[in-house]
Amino acid sequence: MSNIAHKATSTAGSSATTATDRREDIHRAGRVANKRFETNWTISLFGTAVGAGVLFLPINAGLGGLWPLLIVTLLIGPMTYLSHRALSRFVCASPVPGEDITVVARKTFGEGVGRVITVLYFLAIFPIVLIYGVGITNTVDSLMVNQLGLPSVPRWLLSGLLIALMMLVMLASQRIMLIVTQWLVYPLILILLGVSLYLIPGWNLKGFGGVPSFGELAMSIWIIIPVLVFAFNHSPAISQFSVALKREYGAGASERASAVLKRSTLLLVIFTMGFVWSCVLALGPTGLQAAKDQNLPVLSYLANEHGSPFIAYLGPAVALAAIASSFFGHYLGAAEGAAGIVRSMVDRDGSRVSDKNLNIAIAVFIFLTTWLAAILNPSILSLIESIAGPIIAIILYLMPMYAIRKLPALEPYRGKLSNVFVTVAGLVAVSGIIYGLVA
């Protein structure tokens, strides 16, 4: 009996020691933070989010009126931070440093469900890559014709050159991609701030009407939230971001990821929503509707309509920098999802297709499909609302919440009020998109 008690005491002591060691590892990893490494990722995550979604956000958000815009401004910070933190925790839960979201999903939910999640992950990101092909082509064409006075280049040629240029940066290396993203994002932050401040004298509340009824307010918020989810989404980069932090910090990856995500979310809310409010108040409902009809980012429309040379040239510059920086992060996610589909369904052990050949094939596929979308020029907002939005909400908001209930490594995060908030936000986003499609 005493031997049994001694063994139990030893086991308990060993478990306590292990838990203590784990906490010490996490604390040590968090204390010795690589500031430059984390700053690079903060900027890259910001750049991934500030793309076509943000440039089109003033259009849909502003058309709903000022009161819904005020409420979603208060909601978007917690929504963005908590959802992306949960997704990062899901990837960091794997003890194996190199495992990305597709591998973790298969190990967590089993091969069948894991494959479904991998396909959904790809479908959530790939349409956004197509959107950027359309967006950068329209923006550059508008700049050449309206600001530079040049003849319009054939769409097939212009789109092919622009998409090829962005993909060359991506295919060079992740390090070069991070450097180029920083070159784009730092000026982008300053220009967003400059444009927001410059538009202040043109603010006008006419046309927005009074306080809506509760039903009208709730309906407007319901419709705006899916666009917000897309506009602030940087989930395509979260998997590789989490993998990079696991290599850097080991057991402390999840804690450091939360710190980085907090900073990137703060940047997004301050600069993006400030920009959105300034554009909405400067354009008014009529200008917002005209920009939507022309399928242009709001700044490209401002550049065409505003008489100031400042807006005429900085507007397209912001649009180009935002689309290019966001394209890089979304390409990472789309390529990761495509590789996960091939590995899980066709070539599990990698014996048929080498990683190099697979990456080349994926790059060719993404280039050709993005080029085709840019030539066809579909409605960007329709693509956002009908394809990307619902799947993003499922992968970013709902899947990590289910994983917290299922995965033993995520047990410490159960029973939190933030989980309820993220789940409700995800359900509202999915239902809002479905309603918009049916209506």
TrEMBL record:
Main location: membrane
Keyword Transport annotated: yes
Subcellular location: Cell inner membrane
Compositionally biased residues, Low complexity: 8-19
Transmembrane intervals: 41-59, 65-82, 116-136, 156-172, 184-201, 221-245, 266-290, 310-335, 356-374, 380-399, 420-438
Database matches in InterPro entries: Amino_acid_transport_2 (IPR018227)
Keyword check for Ligase: no
Highest taxon of source: Bacteria
Membrane association type: Multi-pass membrane protein
UniProt keywords, alphabetically: Cell inner membrane, Cell membrane, Membrane, Transmembrane, Transmembrane helix, Transport
Annotated spans, Disordered: 1-25
Listed name of the protein: HAAAP family serine/threonine permease
